[in-house]
Amino acid sequence: MSTETLEQTEEVAVVKKPAEGLLSKRRKAFITDPLNEDNPITVQVLGICSALAVTVKMEPTLIMSIAVVFVIVFSNLIISLIRNLVPNRVRIIVQLAVIATLVTLVNEVLKAYNYEMYKVLGAFVGLIITNCIVMGRLEAFAMGNKPYDSVLDGIGSGFGYAWIILTVAFFRELFGSGSIFDFKIFEAVGISNFATNGLMVDSIGAFVVLGVLIWVQRSKTGYVEH
Asked: What is the domain range of residue 163?
């Protein structure tokens, strides 16, 4: 090998970038941004329907959260893996097919192992298929990024959705029913005559709590809508 060729090889070796870490700064942002300054509910205003419909009690809200995290993570992974094989003209149909398959799986598992909760959440679990958060991440991220990054993005968006609806459910159940996960909080601390707020078990209560959360979160991050 000539001296010139050796020098060129050394130059390429110097220019070559080191491999990116599994949780580099860029990849950490995929998880942390949706939890706060780019939250899918409070900033992007997506997934509002389930935030209002299923948050009367903590238990169904928790199960709904787990279902959405599962669907968004695995749909992101699958779409990212097959993104180069899907013709552009049918990509939306393929995305819906993947989401529908995962939602059906969640629905059948819930039906088999927790039938009472299946009766409560059955219709709402089905609506995950058209959840704007899930479709948005597939279209905006998974279709153009590698599988690992897409999984991290799904985790971030899923948990960003989950903590908001769980917080809404916490206040709605606490002040609407005087309980958390059906455990009577106020009776346990000796307040047997606590007057629950009927507004909290109505969708108006969900609007109020969610509105306060959006205000607090946007005030904290200094978010300005353009």
From this structure: 58-217
